[in-house]
Amino acid sequence: MKLTDVVAQHGFEPCDLARIENARLYVRTNSDGVTELLCVQKQGELMQIDRLPLLIAPGVTLPVGDQLKTTLPKAELEGYLNTTLAAAA
Q: What is the pLDDT along the chain (89 residues), one digit of tens a residue?
């Protein structure tokens, strides 16, 4: 399954906030008002996943909670995202 389809199942949409080499950036807003940025970057045969929860209010953007950062083999990406993104939703 395509990366965009996997993250879309968990409410993430493509985001054009930044351009990162060999990476895709996604965003979702949770029911509690927290916005999450998700960056998935290819590094050879490995994939780096960064997820940052943010509280966005007029004039201010604050990180909240814990940032997730991990690197894993490409073959494990879909299963990892389905497990961790579903648990966080």
A: 799 999 999 999 999 988 899 999 999 999 888 999 999 999 999 999 999 999 988 999 899 988 999 999 999 999 999 999 886 65
For residue 22, what are the CA distances in angstroms to 30, 52, 61, 88? Answer: 27, 19, 26, 25
Which domain range does residue 81 map to?
3-88
- β-strand partners of 24: 40
| Coil, helix or strand at residue 5 | helix
Total domain count for the chain? 1
Distance, CA of 86 to CA of 43 (rounded, Å): 24
Assess contact for 47 and 23: CB atoms under 8 A. no
Stated pTM of the model: 0.88
The separation between CA 27 and the C-alpha centre of its own chain, rounded to angstroms, equals 7
